[in-house]
Amino acid sequence: MSVMMLFADVTLVENGKAKICVVVQKEPPKYLQWAAEDIAVYLCKISSATVQVVNAPLENLLPVYVGNSPEKLPMTVKSEYGDAYLIDITAGRIILQGESDRAVYYAAASLLHTLGVRWYAPGELGEVVPQKNIVTISEGRTESAPHFQSRHLWADERWSLRNRMGGPAMAQGHGFYGLMEGGKYFDEHPEYYPIINGKPTKTQANLSSDAVAALFATNIAAQFRKGTSWAGGNGACIGPDDGLLIDERPETRALQDGTIDPLLQVPVMTDPFINFANKVASLLEKEFPNHYLGFYVYSNHNMPPTHFKPHRMIFPIIAPITYTRYGSIGNPCVPTSMLLEEIIKIWRSMVPRMGSYLYNFNLADTAMPFTRTLYFEKTMPRLYEYGVHYSTVESMNDNWQHSLPGAYVYAQITWDVKTDVNKIRDEFYPNFYGPAAVPMRRYNDILEEAYETTSAFAGNVWSMHRIFNQERFTEMTKCIQKAKKLAKGNSPFEQRVEIASYGLRALECWLNARQALNDGKLAEAARWNDAYKANYEEGSNKYKGYIGRMCWVYYNNAHNPSYSDAGRLAKEATILYRFPDGWKGILDKDRIGIRDQWFAPEKDVSGWGILRTYGVSLDEQGAPFFRGLIWYRHDFSLPPAAKKAKTIRIWIGGVDDTAHLYINGKKVDTYSGRYFTPVDADITSALRYDDVNVIVVAVDNSGINELGTGGICRPVFLYEPKLEIQGEKEKGKKDDKPLFGGQ
Hints:
single chain; alpha/beta; Chitobiase, domain 2; eight-stranded mixed β-sheet; six-stranded parallel β-sheet; 30 strands; 33% helix
């Protein structure tokens, strides 16, 4: 919110000559130094004038006091953590004043913003500076304080401050490991830890233990006495570590409310956790009555508690990693968005304060075209209305090809939830893309509409073929082509358009690689996979800081191994049989199939339906939240060419995440498909050469996976190797940590 009173104009620069000097204290603190530097540097960029930075006013120059005015002006606005500021301009002086040095920097940035300077992204390529010979500003006073008391988007510190973000964050994170002192008590006190699979396990903590609560309180008290770096200096993280909360001991199970998390399909552990956190808070509140304990509303402690009301010191921070990563919170077209809205409201009704921890990218991908502009435009005012006034957004610092103008919009709308984002769009596109403004705006409008209206849930790139159908992709391509043509030879607009084009090229490579593999064109799929990598390498080398390493890390984890291996098969194998997309299949929520031998050839599968493998995801088949065993069966006879093969191997292009493979009732082996890696196995001895073969694959996707995937995810082939394969493929490794997400 801002209070402004404006009158006549004051001249700062005239015909390239400065009419002001910037006055700051000797050896100023960092933020005051940065504030003074920015005023001098950007006025020079605007007008070519040299602006002096001094410790005392200079004769005949209007002083701009940066936090050290001889006048202490009363302020009518305030903030919780020292972010409110004042700009007072008269014909005799300009005063930049704030509740903190950081707020004075905000005042300096706001002054330059009034003069037309914009920092849409870090670095010179991300800034817009107008050119003027005469620089004036209106007399008057501006007082401003933020609506969101904490505003954090993972980004360069100075860029954040220039957009009135930064400062200490609310206490948050995954804290059990630190509070348990790294598992040091496990040998002496195994009862401090949860029981999993019948024995104590060195993970998380025993939530029903008074001794563990006392240990937490002791360690948090030590932090409080020392002073913490979190907002207010009076917060501590009490959040569980990343992953699930699991404990089989009766004392903990007695605290559960008996419900199942609708998204993760595991028992809800919120009540045991809140009961535990309440104990810790009760031990601390006498000595630290004004302190707070922050944690993520996350994993299987995401649903609101039903038996235990949170202690007043408890500070929940909603981190919706298991909900849709596309539509805005409260989007009526997306069931999980509506559920999330309701959960936030229930949590908020139980606690004095509440925060949010959102995501500025598509978990888990940073290469595909993406936008958060419309998401922030709709979500942040809704959160503020719900009473959620503290915000952090997880971002990739070098992912700016998809963060514009969304990151800038986030900065503006968290300061003032009444910000007119359409006015920002009207200004941003001509400012940032110049002659290419119209096609680039249309390009981003397509992205905003596509993500806000999609019914897709699956993350990473598993929904790209749904979100970007051929019609959309074609129009986006035309927009980029037109923008490149209009901006050609016109720097920096040409470079800015090119940065965005790398995302579209990544999408093109992925869609074509996927389609080629689905069509059985292994060499072509591998070529598109190579093109994807080449696109990333070119963009990241040419535009460091804008196209970053996570574009490749996520893709390399989830897809490159399969597509590279497809290229190997194209060179080194003869394909003998291509399995269909649809198999006989059934979802085994209770995991009874192995016990009851559903893999047996004589098993009656007349009641099974059809489960597709590579054509559509589990999400598209209506089961994005299923956790259990996914059974596939296919009966087939070997083709004539296969009967002549000395060695026959099966290649399953990707599974999520542990596959049990059976041929004619006999188990071949168990394979981990963590990160959707392929299964490659010799099944020669298990096959019937002159009879019908029955292949059964039971895929267990019960591991933590917020992507809405599971089962067989890519095509399946039988092949004969042209060369002898030395040893078996490594089966991969698996643990209970999230595949891609987490903070």
